[in-house]
Write a structure and sequence with these properties.
Blueprint (H helix, E strand, L loop, with lengths): L1 H18 L7 E4 L24 E5 L6 E4 L4 E4 L1 E4 L4 E7 L7 E4 L17 E3 L3 E7 L4 E6 L5 E6 L7
Parallel strand pairs: 1-2, 2-5, 3-6, 4-7, 5-8, 6-9, 7-10
Antiparallel strand pairs: 10-11
């Protein structure tokens, strides 16, 4: 009986130690473009390419406020983060005839490495504001939680958020 208790204790200790091992997290990809630049332009990002689902898209500390565009395209990132502590950061679909899609999370998302909470899909530091808007007052966005559940939201003229 004593031998079983020692073995069990070793298994629990091993599990607890393994639980403390750093888990893989998304890579940070900072927005470096202009205050009115496109999120779909490779050169506007610190890694030289538009962020992917295994990367955290970040408006870094010290970033200038403005309206960045997501026009006639789609962007899928692990998470979107505003680290600046003041100002309004906006993503806008700047076309009237097309729908752009911003997807946060999904298969390949390793967890937010920026906000301090791996399950965060959208994060704005205290004092900052993050907004989504469209010239035709319609927008669509998708969240995928860590269990793979898809959450879709849209806003249409005259309606609230869904």
């Amino acid at each position: 009986m004593k031998r079983i208790a020692i073995s069990f204790g070793a298994i629990v200790l091993t599990y607890l130690l393994l639980g403390e091992v750093a888990r893989a997290q998304n890579t940070t990809n900072n927005y470096t473009g202009t205050t009115t630049g496109s999120l779909l332009t490779d050169s506007n990002w610190s890694l030289g390419h538009v962020p992917t689902v295994s990367e955290d898209a970040v408006f870094p500390l010290g970033a200038t406020t403005g309206i960045r565009t997501l026009s006639n395209g789609s962007l899928t990132v692990g998470s979107f983060n505003v680290l600046a502590t003041s100002g309004t950061f906006t993503i806008r679909n700047a076309t009237n005839n097309t729908t752009s899609t911003l997807t946060l999370g999904g298969a390949g998302n390793l967890g937010n490495g920026v906000s301090g909470t791996a399950s965060d899909l959208l994060f704005a530091a205290g004092g900052s504001t993050f907004t989504l808007t469209g010239t035709n007052a319609t927008w669509h966005w998708h969240f995928h939680d860590q269990r793979g559940h898809d959450r879709k939201y849209q806003r249409q003229p005259g309606h609230g958020c869904y």
